[in-house]
Amino acid sequence: MLREAAGDACLVTGARVVTVSPGDPDGARASVQCVSAGGTKNYEADLVVGADGLRSTVRNQLAPATIPHYSGKSAWRGVVADTFLVSEDFTVIWGPGTEFGAVRISADQVYWYGYTSTAEHAAWPDEKLAASDHFRGWAEPVPALIEATPPSRIMRHDVYSLAPRLRSYVHGRTVLIGDAAHAMVPTMGQGANSSLEDGACIGLLIGRAVNAGTPLAAALRHFDAERRPRTQRIARRSRHAGLLGADVSGHVAVAVRNTLMKVIPGGPAAAAGASILSWEAPP
Ligand SMILES: Cc1cc2nc3c(=O)[nH]c(=O)nc-3n(C[C@H](O)[C@H](O)[C@H](O)COP(=O)(O)OP(=O)(O)OC[C@H]3O[C@@H](n4cnc5c(N)ncnc54)[C@H](O)[C@@H]3O)c2cc1C
């Protein structure tokens, strides 16, 4: 659909961006240098969107003080063929320093994750065995889901977030989105979601606005004002959600947390989550 909508635009794949010069929205165009099997090429652009992820080259050049910080956690993730282990509800189970979650993603498939404290770059020769060992003795469906997942469908990734937060997502004619702008811990499951919102807003707040006559500088300011507070708030809340969940370890801390969870009314927490999930694209 995107390719079709792009019409006869030139699409370059398999190229690595190595340098970006951000340009000026009221003056010089931006320029991007790419390296591919075909060699090095320079492109000039009215707008550059840096959507190049956690270790963004674009961000490294324009805002090098903001870098990925290891969260102390990694997550095993898997997709398993299942029709009976998990209901329609999102299941989350906490243990010391660990969170396990599972959710049905189709009539016969379940996605699960095991998020736990790990040394950075740790690796096990058999990740399935390591996950099974870690979750041995947990309530079902945890061991059963891991057991039912083929080793080739289990992956594990270290988790990072960006700090300090960016003061602006816009530099000249260049705008950062997604993990490049606001990589966050996954405790609210919002990293990719908020990246998709950013993408929609590039079209709505910049592309559409400029086509309708808004100066690029004003459209970029509007984008930053709409997206930066929201995404940085979600990143902050994700960090706080971790403090109540997988970051709690030690018998006393876990017992206090569990008692608090029983007495604190669910309403305010649900309302805070709903305010994130009820996002609507700008009209
Ligand atoms: C363990 C874990 C669990 C997660 N769970 C969830 C979840 O439940 N829900 C959720 O919404 N999100 C979740 N996320 C977060 C989600 O994966 C990210 O937020 C999302 O992938 C960010 O998308 P992105 O397009 O910004 O970056 P990426 O997906 O990282 O894509 C960046 C792209 O840029 C390319 N690239 C990089 N450098 C260059 C370069 N120099 N030149 C050209 N191309 C380049 C890369 O090859 C890549 O294709 C999770 C993340 C982790 C690690």
Please characterize this protein's 3D structure.
- Strand 10 and strand 11 (174-176) form a beta hairpin.
- With 283 residues, this protein is of the alpha+beta class.
- The protein has helices spanning 2-5, 57-62, 127-134, 142-148, 179-182, 191-211, 216-244, 251-263, 266-277, and strands at 16-21, 30-36, 39-45, 48-50, 67-81, 91-95, 98-106, 109-117, 154-163, 170-171, 174-176.
- It is globular.
- The model has no long low-confidence stretch (mean pLDDT 94).
- 37% of the residues lie in helices and 27% in strands.
- Helix 6 (191-211) runs antiparallel to helix 7 (216-244).
- The protein has a five-stranded antiparallel β-sheet with strand order 6-7-8-5-9. A three-stranded antiparallel β-sheet has the order 1-2-3.
- The chain has nine helices and eleven strands.
- The protein has two domains: 2-66 and 164-242, FAD/NAD(P)-binding domain, CATH 3.50.50.60; 70-160, D-Amino Acid Oxidase, Chain A, domain 2.
- It binds flavin-adenine dinucleotide (FAD).
Order of helices and strands: HEEEEHEEEEHHEEEHHHHH
Shape by Cα distribution: globular
Label the structural class.
alpha+beta
The CATH architecture classification of the largest domain is 3-Layer(bba) Sandwich
Number of strands: 11
Main sheet, how many strands, which sense, barrel?
5 strands, antiparallel
